Amino acid sequence: MLSVSNVDLYYGAAQALRGVSLEAKKGEITCVLGRNGVGKTSLMRAIVGQQAIRSGQIALDGSDLKGEAPYTRARRGIGFVPQGREVFPLLSVKENLQTGFAPVKRGERTIPDHVFELFPVLKSMLSRRGGDLSGGQQQQLAIGRALVTRPNLLVLDEPTEGIQPSIIKDIGRAIRYLKEAGMAVLLVEQYLEFCRELADKVYIMDRGQIVFEGVGADLDDPDVRKHLTV
Ligand SMILES: Nc1ncnc2c1ncn2[C@@H]1O[C@H](COP(=O)(O)OP(=O)(O)OP(=O)(O)O)[C@@H](O)[C@H]1O
Question: Where is the ABC transporter domain (predicted)?
Answer without folding.
Answer: 2-230
